Amino acid sequence: MPVSSSSPRPAEPVRGRRGLAEFIELPYRLHGGDPHFVPPLRGDCRRLLDRRRNPFFRYGEVELFTVRRDGRVAGRVAAVHNPRHNRVHQARDGFFGQFACADDPAVARELLDAAARWLRGRGLKTMLGPVNFTMNDECGVLVEGFDAPPSVLMPYNPAYYPALLESCGMAKAKDLWAWDGTGWVPPERLLSIARRAELRHRLTVRPLDPARLDGDLDRVKLVFDRAWQGNWGFTPMTDAEFAVAKQRLRKIMDPRLVQLAEVAGEPVAVALALPDFNQALVAARGRLSRFGLPIGRVRLSLAARRIDRVRGVLFGVVPDLRRHGVEAALLARSQEAVTAGGYRGGMELGWTLEDNQAINSYLSLIGGTRTKAYRIYGREL
Prior knowledge:
- By secondary structure, the chain is α+β, with helices and mostly antiparallel strands.
- The protein is 36% helix and 26% strand.
- The protein is built from twelve helices and 13 strands.
- The chain starts with 11 loop residues before the first strand and ends with a strand.
- The model has no long low-confidence stretch (mean pLDDT 94).
């Protein structure tokens, strides 16, 4: 997109239905011609920003900004205050998210400076992002791996975004890695370790039970909170946030792909993979209905039958059972489930923190190849 010779207008807070509609519509207008852009459903975008329906707003604050050039919105950003994150991490961090911008450094500066001013006014010292709106949601800017579309629940942006953010004084805070695990077959040595772990710890590994899915997902959260505690940026979901996450997962998950490890009936590890729903989402073109007809819904339903890829979203073991063979048992059962489910089109694993040596070494050991990197940027306020 060519940049006009005129200066962009100062950033303005989003107000009213029209302002919100322009905010939501911008990525579709900017990136709709990109073959790797997967248009999110506009209804999902509205729910995320809805202060009545998104539980984040029960404790957090968000201000949306847009910048116009030549009368049209050319960039957008959300300034995010997450006090739960700051309590957990003893920090004074603010966040920016929902970033979408033309290849226009002047517009980007207006956006990020507006977010910085808003966060500074709340006594915060650092701005991190993009985060939409917590680290449990989509986060990061793609900085490596622009040759393929994103997997389910992962962000995407054109290749000019990193330079755009860096031109505004943003610097790397942390990279998140995605891995390709396509075609991996558990070696006999790993299967032997898995069998010994199951015997030694009386460990059982099972898929989620569709008849008691709600309760099993609650058990997944128990592992999630324990296994990820202390990780960079991790803050447990509230019960209300997890209730919304469960509703979202039910729409896209295959219970066979979620393996729950238990000892004496207590959950101790989880491997959660999802069918790559982005393969089908493209068909809806961002809307479930058009002209009052469920055109997008029908397209989505038909395309969902052809999903053949998976994304491994979560893989974690509670601290006291790590390096006891539980990882091997979980990996073996997960791969069996992927194969049995007929998902032969590929598998993405991640994201993982760049400095999580334990999981990154494990993924390298089983033949995983790092394919993408997503960057969280930071800037002092």
